[in-house]
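User: what does the whole thing look like in 3D?
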Amino acid sequence: MKTWVFSTESDGEAAGSALEALTKARDFGGELGAVLVGEGSEAALAQLGAHGATTVLHAADNTSSGVIAAGVAAAVEAEQPDLLIFGMGNLDRDVAGRLSARLGKPILANAVDITEDGGTWRVASEILGGSTMVVTEFAGGSPAIVITRPKVFAAEPSGGGTPTVTAMDTPDIGHADAVEVLSQHAETSEGPDLEAAAIVVSGGRGMGDEARFGALNELAGILGGAVGATRAVVDAGWVPYSLQVGQTGKTVKPDLYVACGISGAMQHLVGMKDSTTIISINKDPEAPIFGISDLGIVGDVHTVVPALVEALKARG
Amino acid sequence: MKIVVCVKQIPDPASPYQLDPESYFVVRPNDQVLDDTDRYGVEVALQLSDELGEDASVTLLSMSPGGSQQGIRQALAMGADGAILIEDETLRGADALTTSQILAAAATRAEADLLIAGTESTDGYTGVVPQQVAEIMGVPALTFARKVEHVDGKLRIERQTQAGYDVVEGALPAVLSVTSGVVEPRYPTFKGIMQAKSKPVETLTAADLGVTAKVSQKIVSVEEVEGRQAGDIIEDDGEGYLRIIEKLEEVKVV
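Assistant: Here's the predicted 3D structure for the full assembly of 570 residues, as structure tokens:
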């Protein structure tokens, strides 16, 4: 058995999704490897090793996704891994998609579990906002290519040492230089880390506009929580993408999730439905968010939230 | 420049989805709507086309049971010139890779200089089709664009990243995937809706495109998940915030 996981690298750290995938892949036994795109720092390599990877195929940052996919495809043909696990990141999806097409193998996405039985790989995924679980079997030969949802497997170190690193061959694909990164920009947000926070105060379109969305910063501050947002709010440019909760944003599982002016589109629910306690405020009594809320207030966020803030302040 | 935009007709997300109990495929009603996330790609295409003038055309590309073609007409009403619909019983339940092979073959046949798609569909969420299509077409992909500009014959985008955004430039031909923050899609005008009724929709089969649907994945079970139950849902009478405080006390947040 041979499993490879895909990892990007940021500030000298391997991707959390890769460490989670390595931990899961230890269940299957055999050889574990990683494909690392980034600087290739000692720290990132050590993290991958500590979670079970014994080999790392390394490609430099800013290698085009087409070249990485071709490089991984060549390595797959030479080394014949049985299973390839990717995360939900943008580069993960760029490389996984291209690799799948290059190898002529399907991808199963949104995995919340992976099982193997007599050489057959099966993937469980949640559809329709998490209300239905589908189990799908690969019937196209190896490798099985899987994209997993964040945080479904807990990352735990196995105590492995530094892995053996091989530089990825970067084949000529004809259009490697057609895409060029001209500049990189950071959009930072203040406050606690959304993914690690025990309390998340999140807002949707129902907050009205960027200025009124700002009221949630105060509530989050009082509760000691982080601010999150729906895709619609991020797309409207009120807050940066790093605050997005949902299918293509962050997956959060805080002790408390306060949903303000959020209707509860399926793509949002999958990112927060496993929060321990959910409190929602929305003016539409039919809003799907109420279906998963422990407490739902049918009302105007612009009166309920300020009243709540004042009352909490008065308590000191 | 020939711009081809992928659009998907999906069952109306406002009504509950049904799965066929035997095949487990989503039951597709006769009236399907345009996937909302595709309106952004259509708008980007129309804006590029407006900028380029008469040398540009916008063709929609869709693979689905056509039904009443309601979803496609919605996108035509925004201003696209025509549509290609791949409708084929053998493609029912096709996986993302088969879908990508079909879309790539159709885009190549239409001599697309630029193929635009949303980052993922609202009903399937696989989120890899644009990249697969690019690989099959052998062209670069500009993905997760939240802003698109046409500069000196190239496309310059802001690519959404975890930290913020990258400014990325790419030559054509290419595949472009856009987020739903990229532009504000126009609403069809009455004139647009009337014109959409007579715009050409070319219907093709998998065989016309030389693609054979392969079964490379199989659904083995579908089960309802024991979901969390709704708790107290109450109408705010001006003191709803007190109920929230009670709940915060109960879970020991305050």
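In plain terms: The first helix of chain B runs from residue 38 to 52. Chain B has one domain: 2-209.
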